[in-house]
Write the structure tokens for this entry.
Amino acid sequence: MGLSIGQVAERTGLSVHALRFYEREGLLADQVRRESNGRRVYSEDDVGWLAMCIKFRSSGMPLDTIRQYTELVRKGAGNEADRLALLRSHQEHIAAQIEELQEAMRVITHKVTIYEEHVAAGTASCLWTTPNEEPGKELSA
Amino acid sequence: MGLSIGQVAERTGLSVHALRFYEREGLLADQVRRESNGRRVYSEDDVGWLAMCIKFRSSGMPLDTIRQYTELVRKGAGNEADRLALLRSHQEHIAAQIEELQEAMRVITHKVTIYEEHVAAGTASCLWTTPNEEPGKELSA
DNA sequence: ACTTGACCTAGACAACGCTCTAGCTTTTAC
DNA sequence: GTAAAAGCTAGAGCGTTGTCTAGGTCAAGT
């Protein structure tokens, strides 16, 4: 039931350093328990919370915002609307990122296509002799 | 036809600082021309190239990788296969990012839904009195 | 003449998110 | 009993990606 920092590191993928760092930064919803000797004992809840933090991070939420969210939760019931606002705003942020990535993907896929043609056409025989021409100018158009 | 650094900043959205920084970092395909007084003069091609760099950056390509790509292009024809490999690898990277974001989006949308219910149900009357309970435990399941 | 504003270089500084070190204690395995 | 492994704190260090400052040049407007 109680996990050591090493075990938590293993199953979250975070380093033990990062785990201590997150704790210092106030990202953990509730105080991590300690053994008599001072070692941290993580509960399953702690691990669950960390998993959520990792999802937040992996979608580009800054530690600072995670801390804000954590603080809301720590304050307990009554600020659900605030939490919701924060979550929604992050949702929008994710959506924007996805769009941006998709747009970049389109552009790059286009470039890839062009290069594929070039490479297929000229593998052994280098036909087009425009050294500094880059199939990327279509971007400016 | 020739643009000042300020004009380029305006139309790329990069700061003049960033433009000089990018140049120092070797991200520009061809040497930026200078006026007799030493001021930079950007061509439309330069701006096009910068637009591409921005797309790369916005999809998470590190400056270092952009520099590698730039170097390939600078070397001229003959390494198209290398450029293609780099682009493809970035394509995969983008795809992975999109998936990660979509996964995070699912999780967060789920949380949002739960909060919406809670907020709708208990706006004025705080019904559920479990202060430290966070609708996020479902993550660990 | 003089001020304003855009530009130049070189280099310091900064935010973010960890990561690592030093120096020490405790636990575990042999 | 002893050595290796794991933990602790406090704080330094670092890679990335810019941003900002200092100190100076240059051109244009008033």
In short: The first strand of chain B starts at residue 33 and ends at 34.
